Here is the input.
Amino acid sequence: MRLYQKYLTLLLLILLAMIVYFYMQKKQEFVNRIDIVLMNLLDKQIEQEKAESFAFSFALAQNETLQTAIERNDTDKATEILKRYTSTLEVFSGSKVHAQIVTKDFIIFARNWESTSTGLSIKAYRPDLEDIVLTQKPHLSFEAARRLVLIASIPIVKEKHLIGFIEVIQNFDTLKNYFANYDIDLLVLMDAKYRNQAVLLKNNPRIGNTIVANDDANIHHIAYLQHAGLNRLLTHGVLEGDDYVYFSRAILNADGQNIGSFILVLSKKKMKLFSAFEEELDTFLTYSRKDLYFSLINRTPSTNLWNNYTAEELLSLKKCVHSEDKTALEEKLRTDLDNYSKDELISLLLDTNSNQKSRGHIK
Here is the structure.
């Protein structure tokens, strides 16, 4: 081999190495962007659930009839009030609400979803309640109790005396359903050091030193993480599998202790779709076309749903509209587009599909 051929080969190898390096860098940057957006979405939903739980538990704590029932040790009356109020809230929220009353001695007094635990002491599982006794301030955090949950605990105070606690308990079904709208799976893991007090999770599968805390978790993801391990995922926040990418976020309790992890799972096929409109990734995930569609429905209860929207808005909604509304939307589009010139139509299509490359000629 001649000298110039050796130099040419060396240059080609260097060029190939640079291409691979920059490709991997760009890929990692994109994965990091998705990680940031997913964690922002997760934080947003958690804050929303916290706000709703706090508002509801605070309102119940002020209920004088409920306070009287606690003072009179009238469990039936307290349960009736809980069921009445939570059923109303469930109609508006669309999700199951668990609320309970705990006495000042840490005994379960009443629950809206079951009665078998009435009279059970939870002092051993709930050191956070002792803090509320001392401060008489509300408590809102994730706790590893009999299972891992989000708990809003409000002290019930009457005439400056603590008579008990009202608590709204959230599992992870609402979060799971929210992310399912984006084809994103959710795993919630609890640190296994809490296994003795988390008696309701004793039969749940384990991944390393953690216990799967959410119901109906995807068994494929559980099996993969059991095989791959959690160290890299929990250390770096991201783990790339064969078909999925896993993103993690620590779960902290009220004392700032790490008690588990949220794992969000996104398929590589879905990530390829995201890469087609990388510049709009934040907007797409934060406020998707589905959200836009449903917000339009909620804001416009009239039967003529599409009358107040532009052709550009209707084109954006066309792919996600419900089948029963599609005909009406298309008729409205045809009526509007009949008045457009060729240049206006071209401009509209370019604006609506600004991230798609078009090839060919417009005649």
